[in-house]
Design goal:
123 residues; mainly alpha; 2 domains; extended
Length: 123
């Protein structure tokens, strides 16, 4: 018997979308990456336009497809480094900006966490 407002859980099957084939998906992903989209943004676009919730149902992740095709893409840590540079430049002009100081501290901490994760992932 289910509790109030919850109901029975129906398991969803991981079905491959019928509209798109595996070869076409790889072409679409490469094309979107060449337009300057990140892997996360590519995933969002595929979800919105093509109704694909997971590319992994085809057997490969977006980053793996991009590496196989030889397409370069920016990683998340690169965006964090760029953000830190922008905030530091802003802070040098606006020394009293406390919100920028807090944001800079937050970004530096995020960069340290990402560095630790990438180091752990390599080993």
């Amino acid at each position: 018997m289910a509790a109030k407002k919850t109901g029975a859980k129906v398991k969803k099957e991981k079905a491959v979308p019928e509209r798109v084939e595996a070869e076409n998906i790889e072409e679409i992903i490469v094309e979107l990456a060449k337009q300057g989209n990140t892997p996360a943004k590519i995933g969002q676009i595929l979800k919105e336009k093509y109704g694909m919730h997971k590319v992994k149902t085809f057997g490969k992740k977006i980053t793996k497809i991009l590496k196989e095709k030889g397409v370069s893409f920016k990683k998340d840590i690169d965006f964090v480094k760029e953000k830190i540079k922008k905030i530091e430049a802003h802070k040098s002009k606006n020394k009293q900006d406390k919100r920028a100081k807090i944001e800079l501290t937050r970004m530096i901490h995020l960069k340290k966490k990402m560095d630790a994760y990438l180091l752990k992932k390599q080993n």
